[in-house]
Amino acid sequence: MARGPRQADIARMSGVSQATVSVVLGGNRAGVRLAEDTRRRVLAAAEELGYVPDPVATRLASSRNNLLGLYTFTATFPTDVADSYYPILVGVEEEAAELGQDLILFTGSSAGTRTHDHTRIHRTRLADGCLFLGRHVPDEPIRELVASGFPVVYIGRREELGGTIPYVGADYVSASAELIGRLADAGHTTIRYLREDDDAPSSRDREQGVLAGAAAHRLDVRVDRFDGAGLPDLGRWAAEGVTAVVVEETDTGAVFHAVTGALAAAGMSAPGDLSLAVLGRPPAGVPGPVVSGFEVPRREMGRGAVRLLDALVGPDRRAAPELHRLLPCAPVAGDTIRRNQDV
Question: Could you say which residues form the signal peptide (predicted)?
Fold first, then answer.
């Protein structure tokens, strides 16, 4: 088997020392004074010979491989464009490509499930740093990674481990409070908020925003948790004076489907009988009017997380990047909030 071109071959072709070739191909991180003509000759020779640096040798020399890991805790890696995680992954890939970084996907297990197993999570150290994506943080293995200095960035706000986990997330608190304000402006004073029976920072943030919006506008807002059993009794809610229902968006879409199913079962519609809003967007492919809510900046979250991770694994970590960043969510007016006739 013919060997590939080496730095010694580039040195001979360009008429310089192998040390000079190493400096040029390594990006001259040490700031060695080099003539521009020399640099161009070396790069031209490398391109002509088809030189590709050995990633193992590169890592030994620089402690960096230009490899960023991605570990998700979803049961199946989201590749369907209708999946709520898909735009995040698009953003991750786009930003990694622009930064010249390769991505390595850690699959968790051969059975297709993601686990919190220490060994599998610690395999992410094969990369220079790793992005994590999922509703819950496996405290102990992530604590060990963070304590060791291994660069970790979560996509989505995290509050675990004393706030030491870097993240890029969405500002659900402000967006949820703004949506409640829209309902108040439309004359709704008695509102029911239905969320999944599962705690995660994104769920707590949405509820905090709902309650903040209710307090600011002096609204009667009751929070209920949906455990997946049966359907909410929307007819009874309407009889009790509820004029608007707000639901949480999650990757399962369980609460939204429960409410729309209950509307159909009761012969009711939104916004005809009850106004309906979602803290985010409804599941893809839902027929009917555009549901009022807000747009979660998932693509931007993916891109921002890659930029943060790239800064953390870079040579100039002294730049102290912003470790916790929340992005605004754009309102979606939709067609499912009607003006309350009692106003």
Answer: none
